[in-house]
Amino acid sequence: MASPGPKSPALQTNMDVDYVISYRFATTEKETAVKRFERLVYALSSVGLATEVRNGNKHSLLVFVKVASEEHLFGEVYRSRVNDWIHGVRSAAPEKETRRALEAEPLHEAERLRTIYQLITNPVTEGGAGITPKEGEWKNVESVFALHDHAYNKEWIKKWSTQYLLKPKDLDEIRDRLGEKIAFYFAFTQSYFTFLLFPAAFGFSAWFLLGHYSSVYAVVNCLWCVIFVEYWKHQEVDLAVRWGVRGVSSIQTKRRDFKHEKETTDPVTGETVQVFPATKRLQRQLLQVPFAIGAVLILGTLIAT
To answer: Which keywords does UniProt give here (predicted)?
Structure first.
């Protein structure tokens, strides 16, 4: 299957490398380090990732990771989009044919990196290699990181240094390159600092004209805070709908330390689901109640005296 879009500029400047894994063995015996490293390479290859190894510094190896075949990557992206649709994140199901689906909605850099990172770190039961840096059998894996696109970074800095406000097109570009979380951060930061202009000007005027402890200043600040919160709620929803991630929190990712007590079969999908009883979770949460009551009594006593 041919690529549905042009190759990422970042890949062109990074020799097609998607991620780098730092493997450090300074405090590990030679035989153990070799076995763990072989297990690492095998785990990566089992999920369709190709590797190239180079010497690092201070008793370390750098494992350069890329997708072995673009067809495998497109299949993973397609399954991820179908999963979003099943959980209600996407309003419409992708095209049944993978190639047509990716032509209708091209793969951007952030989605590509997110998909490959999930292949590396997701549990084996979810189709990933299950590599968890510095934990369990992967203690020698120091970190997993993507490479910078220095040419794009220079162009980006040059562009942003000549403008004061980000347009929707700029936010879309951030989302395509760095993902929705980073794009939301920039959108919130811009909204926040823009809304600070009024209280800054009003605060100076209040200090100059109204004097200390002005009730007018307090009321206006409270109203302005409420206005900002409601404005950001609407903007957040608009951006989530625009980027197709509204309700994405409904897709839960299993924690590395999660320990289930039993397994059941999902009646809809037929998949095996690991379950931890809700009653035991509630019992653990109730342990906080005595501490909360004690804190309230201590603070109440201090205030009263």
So the answer is: Membrane, Transmembrane, Transmembrane helix
Angle at 111 between CA 108 and CA 112, to 5 degrees: 80
pTM (global) more than 0.85: no
- CB neighbours of 24 closer than 8 A, spacing ≥ 6? 56, 58, 59, 60, 61, 140, 142
The pLDDT profile of the chain, 305 residues, written as one tens digit per residue, is 445 555 555 555 677 899 999 999 988 899 999 999 999 999 999 999 999 999 988 889 999 999 988 888 898 898 888 888 887 878 787 888 888 888 888 888 999 999 999 999 988 888 899 999 998 889 999 999 998 888 888 888 888 888 888 899 999 999 999 999 999 999 999 999 999 999 999 988 888 888 778 888 899 999 999 999 999 999 999 999 998 888 877 777 777 777 777 888 877 767 777 788 888 888 888 989 999 999 999 999 988 87
Please state, in angstroms and rounded to a whole number, the distance separating the CA atoms of residues 60 and 268: 46
